[in-house]
């Protein structure tokens, strides 16, 4: 069946939509919002009320969007989660299939099925659910599941995946970096229904940006580039205490960070009774969080090609030179033009996470 096409951006950006297999027109605007390690949300605006009267919560939606006939990162598959009819302009909200992981049936993950296996493949297996394509998850991490990670138990698939990614933090020392670094694996469905895992590796000298932002960049609009530097996620002194034996604990500190930024201590309970294991975990925590949280929010035109995991270089005198950071959030708003807000750096804490960290 031929799909109905709406040209929203001077015939350059094509939008094709099907809901429950039926071509769907009347689209007046789209907005995509996506954060690393989370589902992508799409809002669709429609002229009038009649087009949405037969929709239902849970309707399957397929969107193809891009310039020309090529596969595009805006291509989306998901389910309708909210319908807001209005005589003037209605709105539909849909989320991608990561939502199925969040609301999955409870799974009993057993230690004997987990210990010694690669966390990457354990998470990939948990993602293989309700139409999520995991065929490209073949890389592996080399990080094995251990008892002290607390992976076992009754939980949703999303909860289990989060636990795996909390420990998917390899430590790397090589000539490709200026110092020893702890890296972070991320996950998301960045196009259609295909699950991606990728390693945030922006500190690698070999990493290249998809875009460099300078003071003369003519695609910047509105506020342009806004930076935010804060200490909300900093840890430069981590104490790991065995929850089994309170006499077993270790503290790892970064003296350079403490001297520069002040002490930012954190206590973490872990089931391990091995001092070397507690020290390893504390060391990784400090490596990941010893510097202030830095984010740049970039507002610009025609940046719909930028997606999570891309690298952007900030080269503005007042902010710093040659700062390469990963994209951790994108918001693309498509009407008669394309306006994007790109967040690079460290993902911002949710309100719940911020309150939780403040109480620790």
Any key phrases for this structure?
single chain; 7 helices; 3-stranded mixed beta sheet; disordered N terminus; 14-stranded mixed beta sheet; 360 residues; alpha+beta
Describe the structure.
It is a single chain. Helices cover 16% and strands 41% of the residues. It has 7 helices and 23 strands. Strands 1, 2, 3, 4, 5, 6, 7, 8, 15, 16, 20, 21, 22 and 23 form a 14-stranded mixed sheet that branches. Strands 18-17-19 form a 3-stranded mixed sheet. It has a two-stranded antiparallel ribbon with strand order 9-10. α3 (119-127) packs antiparallel against α4 (157-166). The chain is globular, with a radius of gyration of 22 Å.
Any chance you could write out the topology, listing elements then pairs?
Blueprint: E1 5-9, E2 13-19, E3 22-23, E4 27-35, E5 41-47, E6 60-66, E7 76-84, E8 89-96, H1 98-102, E9 107-109, H2 111-114, H3 119-127, E10 153-155, H4 157-166, E11 171-172, E12 181-182, E13 184-191, E14 194-200, E15 211-214, E16 220-230, E17 237-242, E18 249-253, H5 255-261, E19 265-270, H6 275-289, E20 293-301, E21 311-316, E22 320-334, E23 338-345, H7 351-359
Parallel strand pairs: 15-21, 17-19
Antiparallel strand pairs: 1-2, 2-3, 2-6, 4-5, 4-22, 5-8, 6-7, 7-8, 9-10, 11-12, 13-14, 16-20, 17-18, 20-23, 21-22, 22-23
